[in-house]
Write a structure and sequence with these properties.
mainly alpha; 94% helix; 0% strand
């Protein structure tokens, strides 16, 4: 009987050791994958920051150019603003007018 118990204990010990090694290998692999994911996330974050900087620089340049155009051509700018306002006003008027019933 003691021999059976010893074999059972030995087998259980071996199985526990194998299970522990399997868990350790899985944890190592998960750690490696987490490192890969972390590296990918950092790469995406860097690209996002770079894209944001580029968009901000382009917007700033566009505002600067618009300001220069207004300063250089104030009459044209005012005329364009008035024309745009008239077009938008007519479109709104037509939209509101089409909703009414003119019987």
């Amino acid at each position: 009987m003691s021999n059976s118990r010893d074999r059972l204990k030995h087998t259980m010990g071996e199985n526990a050791t194998r299970a522990r090694r399997s868990v350790e290998r899985a944890a190592d692999q998960a750690g490696e994958r987490m490192g890969d994911v972390r590296g990918y996330a950092e790469h995406i974050l860097d690209q996002s920051r770079q894209g944001y900087r580029q968009v901000a620089e382009r917007a700033e340049e566009g505002f600067r150019q618009a300001g220069e155009m207004v300063r250089e051509n104030p009459g044209l700018t005012v005329s364009a603003a008035i024309g745009l306002g008239l077009v938008v006003g007519v479109m709104i008027g037509l939209t509101l007018g089409s909703d009414r019933d003119w019987r």
